[in-house]
Design goal:
The chain is an alpha/beta fold. The protein contains 14 helices and 14 strands. It has two domains: 146 residues, Aspartate Aminotransferase, domain 1; 229 residues, 3-Layer(aba) Sandwich (Aspartate Aminotransferase, domain 2), CATH 3.40.640. Bound molecules: 4'-deoxy-4'-aminopyridoxal-5'-phosphate (PMP) and (2E)-pent-2-enedioic acid.
Length: 399
């Protein structure tokens, strides 16, 4: 059968994800993987979930095992409406809906807002899963460099003006303000305000994707962009993947009602509804204080892992390398000398039984070829140093 002639035009925009492709490799027991953005299995709230499941199956099975409404169970949306107050967000229940991971929320943004050729602004580097979700709708992704304080909004402003002059259709700015994936940096408060002003001036949406904001090891929280948004310009996303379990595939969106409604209609044909079982479990997890207690433990665990990794890098990495020192989250970003190609170096690393994701995967401009992302949360404490030693050897051999 000549199936190639039958694929839709849309499939030409699809890209494979380096992270997803690497997942199998990084789960090989002999490989020390800094590649996947996976939580530590020791961070999972196993006992809490056991206790809650027992209770849900006894008391709430009629709801928890039934189909639910597309926006999510009302009882859980109420929980989320309360929960997002932690981020300074005063939402109405109709602004909130539940998705199957924030990855689905990104796909819905694409479906609802992106026509082929529309301009979407992202930072360099940015989250690969967002790049691929938006590319799938034919987005014209424009990259804006970032530094220690996140996206360079001054450069963003210049790019907006330049593209507007050319008559391009500009749609939205995508940002992961807190402990960004992949660079681990935080967008400063001043830049958050400026970003919102720029979006208002040019009538753009902001997609604020915040999986890591609860995982702060040090420093004061910075207000979310959504908390400063008076016009309904920000589509905010949060997820339970990094504070409960990614296996639950549970996330939420807070957006202005009419936008939320349009997104929910898009979701109706995708999956009817997010799993009701996990929504009911997560409701108890949040409301009974399990979440708060668990997050404290996760922070302790991840801070230690970050420190082990940073200490090992100080000891073993060549002086010519530079890296970020994240105050939270799950990743750090390494820049090697210009002539080292981290895309090619992946094979050397795998031979040495260590894995990372090369920087180009997180770039929409072909850049990042001398950079790499390291995840410090998934490997056990006692293998991080050995993994860094192996990686340092690979880098030194290339140099
Ligand atoms: N956005 C960002 C920035 C992420 O890092 C991730 C997961 N690595 C996601 C979205 C998707 O998360 P999930 O679908 O598990 O909620
Ligand atoms: O496994 C995934 O695709 C989720 C993790 C994303 C990442 O590594 O950034």
């Amino acid at each position: 059968m000549r199936v190639d002639d039958l694929y839709s035009q849309r499939t030409k925009y699809f890209r494979t994800s380096e992270i997803r492709e690497l997942l199998e490799l990084s789960q090989r027991p002999d490989v020390i993987s800094f590649a996947g953005g996976l939580p530590s299995p020791h961070a999972f709230p196993v006992e809490e979930i056991k206790e809650i499941v027992e209770r849900v199956l006894s008391n709430d099975y009629a709801t928890a095992l039934q189909y639910g409404p597309t926006p999510g169970l009302k009882i859980f949306r109420e929980t989320i409406t309360e929960y997002v107050k932690n981020f300074g967000i005063n939402a109405d229940i109709d602004d909130v809906f539940i998705t199957v991971g924030s990855q689905q929320a990104l796909d819905i943004v694409g479906r609802v807002f992106i026509d082929a050729g529309d301009v979407i602004f992202v930072s360099l580097p940015t989250y690969l899963g967002a790049i691929n979700a938006f590319y799938a709708y034919g987005a014209n992704m424009v990259g804006v460099p970032l530094d220690e304080e996140g996206m360079r909004v001054d450069i963003l402003e210049e790019k907006i003006k330049e593209l507007k002059k050319k008559g391009e259709k500009l749609k939205l700015i995508y940002t992961v303000p807190t402990f960004q994936n992949p660079a681990g940096v935080e967008l400063s408060e001043e830049r958050r305000k400026h970003l919102l002003e720029i979006a208002a001036e040019h009538d753009l949406l902001i997609v604020e994707d915040e999986p890591y904001s609860m995982l702060r090891f040090e420093g004061e929280p910075i207000p979310s962009i959504k908390s400063m948004d008076k016009e309904g310009r920000v589509i905010y996303m949060g997820t339970f993947s990094k504070i409960m379990s990614p296996g639950f595939r549970l996330a939420y969106v807070v957006a202005e009602k009419s936008v939320a409604r349009k997104m929910v209609v898009a979701k109706q044909s995708m999956d009817l509804c997010a799993p009701t079982f996990t929504q009911v479990i997560a409701k108890y997890y949040v409301e009974n204080g399990y979440l708060t207690r668990r997050v404290e433990k996760i922070i302790e665990m991840y801070r230690k892992k970050r420190d082990i990794m940073l200490d090992a890098m100080d000891e073993y990495f060549p002086q010519e390398c530079k890296w970020t020192k994240p105050r939270g989250g799950m990743f750090l970003w390494v820049e090697l000398p210009e002539h080292i190609n981290t895309v090619e170096m992946v094979q050397d690393a795998v031979k040495e039984k260590v894995a990372y994701v090369h920087g180009r995967a997180f770039h929409v401009d072909g850049g990042g070829t001398n950079a790499m992302r390291l995840n410090f949360t998934n490997p056990d404490d006692d293998v991080i140093e050995e993994g860094i030693k192996r990686l340092a050897k690979v880098i030194k051999t290339r140099m």
